[in-house]
Amino acid sequence: MKGYKIISFLLITAISLTFCAMKQEFQTEFPQEIQSIFYQKIKKGTESSAINFYIEFKNPLSANIKLEKIYFHNQESLVQEITPKDFKSTFLQSNKKEDLIMDKNPAKEYGNKAPVVSKSKFDLKSNEAILEYKKDSKTLFYKILNVQEKPLR
Known about the structure:
Distance between the termini: 75 Å
Order of helices and strands: HEEEEEEEEEE
Number of helices: 1
Low-confidence stretches: none
Structural class: mainly beta
Helix content: 10-25%
Strand content: 35-45%
Largest sheet: 5 strands, mixed
């Protein structure tokens, strides 16, 4: 009987901890006025390309706010400061396709590599991004809607 009590206690604890997992809440407004947000696609030869994601503020970023990461197109990248008002994040993309060996004999397909499927931390549309930042050492998330692509000049 004592074993059943321990097992039921552990089961209830496990279930309750499952529901206590931290769910990120998105901020509806960023604490500072943003002038523009856009991205540009850059070709790097035939095998790779990159997306540069830019955030421009009207005024220099406050000292108590630190931009951490951008989540965009099922990728994440650290934010780099260009100037106190301008920030950039780069997402690398490979255009290289692996050759697959297809044969009636499955033994000849042995060298094929399985595709790498990565699950994004957030479920985003193609024109949405998430900005992870710290304000007074508290991590917050701001959802950016309608990110526009600007062509290279």
